[in-house]
Specification:
Length: about 400
């Protein structure tokens, strides 16, 4: 039995520190592990050797700064994680391993407003198909990350706003999917997962403080502070779409008037153009037409960018992020929307905050949320899942030891 302060307890803690550092980063050189954990290079070298012999990590030769180095990642056989993203019009599922490699991914149309039962039926079927397709057994699944287009009530675990998904009222999505798949499920809203995806794989790499702004049927933000998603005590941090821009403006679905969402979200913007461009107009088509030079579409996107910039300026004044990443279909407009965002930030943000801010589009497109769901599992799963102790005292992989 390990006792606090004993050599075996300290060794176990060091093992978990190394595994955690590699798990969160995907891969690190031994020098990077030493810097991130505070352990000595010699200690890191011994632990990596032990983990390699146990099959928990893989070590490959690489280079860093022009010098030879050894890159450490979790073993491809150490289990898989699954990401499930419910959008308003789609379902996307991805399968990845613990080395941050995406093994399979697929998306299909889905109207999540219609029925939560159909949504989870389709998700369960798609997960099974992808796992079978890569030839991996279900017993290899360590956990699932789940994204939904609405705030999650922290206390009950249910969707917190029935105005967003009226057909899902009272549903606990984490419990429902966990019951179906038989593994732990970690759930968050789509904006937070988009922030995680861009932080780990996309335009947010290398920064610790950023805001991911998603503009779709609604407007939301995922906030990263010091490398961690900030959700707030009630789980509703980042509802930038409900910053008031005009107290006499249109009535928002939240009940207030003149929220940012009423000037930027697709449900409010598209009617401005449908009389001239037809009732089937989508935000994707608006962006396409704007890039082709359509004056009406360009004007609407410019106006939306200015309104978003006002909200971003408020974020700058409150949180002072170093980067803002724009996601959703509007991001494909590129500089057509980024330029007016920057203009509003320059006008309304504190100058010192505006100077330090970079505003750019996400690099993951529609994949940001599902990759963020994978990152959510990788960040939330316990390291004890990957470590066990046999009678000889050597640690070895313990697939699903803490979740079955």
């Amino acid at each position: 039995m390990q006792t606090p302060g004993s050599q075996s307890s300290l060794h176990r803690a060091n093992l978990e520190r190394v595994v955690r550092a590699v798990r969160l980063a995907g891969s690190l050189t031994q020098a990077e592990i030493a810097r991130s954990t505070g352990l000595s290079p010699a200690t890191v070298s011994n632990i990596v050797r032990e983990l390699k012999e146990a099959g928990t990590v893989e070590v490959t030769d690489t280079s860093a700064g022009g010098r030879r180095a050894r890159s450490v990642s979790l073993s491809g056989d150490a289990g898989i994680v699954i990401g499930v993203d419910f959008g308003h019009t789609h379902l996307r599922v991805a399968v990845g391993n613990l080395a941050h490699q995406v093994l399979a991914e697929e998306a299909e149309p889905l109207d999540v407003d219609a029925s939560w039962v159909e949504g989870f039926d389709r998700a369960e079927s798609l997960v099974g198909r992808l796992i079978a397709g890569i030839g991996v057994g279900r017993d290899k699944v360590i956990g699932v990350g789940l994204g939904v287009p609405g705030p999650i009530d922290v206390e009950s675990g249910t969707l917190g706003s029935t105005a967003i998904l009226p057909g899902w009222a009272g549903i606990n999505p984490r419990q429902e999917l966990s019951r179906r798949l038989g593994v732990p499920v970690y759930v968050d809203n789509d904006a937070n997962l988009g922030a995680l995806g861009e932080l780990v794989w996309g335009s947010g790499r290398g920064v610790k403080d950023l805001a991911y702004i998603k503009v779709a049927s609604g407007v939301g933000a995922g906030l990263v502070i010091n490398g961690q998603i900030y959700r707030g005590p009630g789980g509703t941090a980042g509802e930038i779409g409900h910053i008031t821009l005009d107290e006499s403006g249109p009535v928002c679905r939240c009940g207030n008037r003149g929220c940012l969402e009423t000037f930027a979200a697709a449900r409010y913007v598209l009617p401005l153009l449908q009389s001239s461009h037809g009732p089937e107009l989508t935000m994707e088509r608006v962006v396409e037409l704007a890039r082709e030079g359509d004056p009406g579409c360009r004007r609407v996107i410019t106006d939306v960018g200015r309104h978003i910039g006002s909200g971003v300026a408020s974020l700058c004044n409150l949180l002072n992020p170093s980067r803002v990443v724009l996601g959703g279909s509007l991001a494909d407009a590129g500089e057509l929307v980024l330029a007016p965002i920057r203009e509003s930030v320059g006008r309304y943000a504190i100058p010192s905050a505006a100077r330090q801010l970079s505003v750019l589009t996400g690099s993951l497109g529609g994949r940001a949320e599902v990759l963020g769901a994978l990152a959510l599992v990788l960040s939330e799963m316990g390291d004890s899942t990957l470590l066990a102790e046999n009678s000889s005292g050597v640690r070895a992989p313990a697939l699903l030891s803490s979740v079955r």
